[in-house]
Amino acid sequence: MKKIVVLLLLAGLAGFWALAADVPAGKEVLKLQAKMGTVTFKHKEHATRVGDCKTCHHKQQEGATPRACSECHDKKVVKDEAPKLKNALHKTCGDCHAAKQEAGEKAGPLTAMKAKQCKKCHVK
User: Fold this and answer.
1) How far, in Å, CA of 104 to CA of 98, rounded?
2) Are strands 30-32 and 122-123 parallel, antiparallel or unpaired?
3) Of 35, 55, 75, 79, which has fewest CB within 10 angstroms of its CB?
4) Running DSSP on this structure, what letter comes out for residue 30?
5) CATH class of segment(s) 2-56+68-123
6) How far apart are the C-alpha atoms of 41 and 89, rounded to whole Å?
């Protein structure tokens, strides 16, 4: 009986993680173009770690396909109270990486953001 319960729990967790990493084909790795250089964003890896698309796609309607950040966050102007894309990405990414670091987890290039070492993420 214990084996069946454990197997069911493991199957449920595997299913949860499979759904959490459900990134559309061709969107597993995103190349974000910026003046300072291209930022490579490992979308699938982040989706797997975070587990909930709404963490980043925060205005997403329930059951809707997530939209690109740039659909709400314009590159040049504040649009409908949404901050510019650069500011939104730096804040969202920085806040999440800071929380991970404070929790003792792998935090990626957070120290580069704080130290203004832009080229750690932005590559020309």
Assistant:
1) 10
2) unpaired
3) 35
4) E
5) alpha beta
6) 11
Give the pTM: 0.71
For residue 39, the surrounding DSSP H or E stretch is strand 38-41
Amino acid at 60: Q
pLDDT single digits (tens) 50-108: 888 888 898 888 888 888 898 889 888 887 889 999 999 988 888 888 888 889 888 77
CA-CA-CA-CA dihedral for 84, 85, 89, 92, to nearest 10: 50
β-pairing, 38-41 vs 122-123, is antiparallel
The angle, 0 to 180 degrees and rounded to 10, between the axes of the packed helices 2-20 and 43-50 is 140
Q: What is the DSSP string of 63-103?
A: TSPPPPGGGTS-SSS-BTTBPPHHHHHHHHHHHHHHHHHHT
Taking the CA atoms of residue 96, residue 121, residue 37 and residue 119 in that order, the dihedral angle to the nearest 10 degrees is 130
CA separation for the pair 15, 20 (Å, rounded):
9
